[in-house]
What we know:
Blueprint: E1 2-6, H1 13-23, E2 30-33, H2 44-53, E3 57-58, H3 62-68, H4 80-89, H5 92-99, E4 105-109, E5 112-116, E6 146-148, E7 156-160, E8 163-167, E9 181-187, E10 192-198, H6 202-211, H7 217-225, H8 241-249, E11 253-257, E12 261-266, E13 274-280, E14 285-290, E15 311-313, E16 318-325, H9 326-331, H10 333-344
Parallel strand pairs: 1-2, 2-3, 5-6, 6-8
Antiparallel strand pairs: 1-9, 4-5, 7-8, 9-10, 11-12, 12-13, 13-14, 14-16, 15-16
Helix pairs in contact: 1-2, 3-5, 6-7
Protein name: Calcineurin-like phosphoesterase domain-containing protein
GO molecular function: phosphatase activity
Family: Belongs to the metallophosphoesterase superfamily. YfcE family.
Amino acid sequence: xxxxxxxxxxxxxxxxxxxxxxxxxxxxxxxxxxxxxxxxxxxxxxxxxxxxxxxxxxxxxxxxxxxxxxxxxxxxxxxxxxxxxxxxxxxxxxxxxxxxxxxxxxxxxxxxxxxxxxxxxxxxxxxxxxxxxxxxxxxxxxxxxxxxxxxxxxxxxxxxxxxxxxxxxxxxxxxxxxxxxxxxxxxxxxxxxxxxxxxxxxxxxxxxxxxxxxxxxxxxxxxxxxxxxxxxxxxxxxxxxxxxxxxxxxxxxxxxxxxxxxxxxxxxxxxxxxxxxxxxxxxxxxxxxxxxxxxxxxxxxxxxxxxxxxxxxxxxxxxxxxxxxxxxxxxxxxxxxxxxxxxxxxxxxxxxxx
Length: 354
């Protein structure tokens, strides 16, 4: 029995479509969604249609609770306008479908019990379950040996006392410095867990966001660069002449996006490409950053050897970050990207630690 697990779609129909199409290339028996079908963006109706087409079994997330009336939304939140717009667009049938979703699922496959949460056992919709919080004794109550969580938008996996604690990551709005759609599969018969991160047509999603007045610019930044920022983006286009020679000499690097800066995807083995971002802001500053290099709960990062490297830390882990004035950046763009590539090459991304 092989199952595929997704979560935190947040109405990103393009990312979900890519994941579901990818599922047809594997022998998947069932797909499960750990909640947050809606929220932040406006493609909830299309997402519901895709989930039904692929017979995905879903539970509610906190944003789905807002739609169903099970949870109360804060009208001061930046996603409130997108929530109101979504409510107007959804049919009664679609609202009823969301309302009918359970808050939790317990699976029994090949002798294994699997608990599916959006948040965690103490608060099914809203608990943030980070790896540093997980202790085996906290999860002894029903004899399960697989525990899957969502809500944090961070893909992780750890093993404690013959129990696996997993988060498939976010399909539509990752927060680990990797814009791609995240998910994982579990082969219950062979106890094999495989995390995935796949590219999708992010440019179409960006266009949808720019077209809508209901989507807050903060989430556009998160969508493109895989992490949050309160700084407004600038629609600056990098002069391709700066990049042409560099890209020619590095055929394993692909340009994914050129709006508000640049996304470069560096092809690596084991489906774990490194991502380098160049973000332009309205204050005439530029930030060049990487996807998460190593998660902060892993203790095998020797920072003493990396004193000269600009490493930042957020809830996902460590990543490279350098800041420039826009005028200075354009003079040295190839050197800046080369430095970022040198840094990411020193690390091997560890999606799942078992």
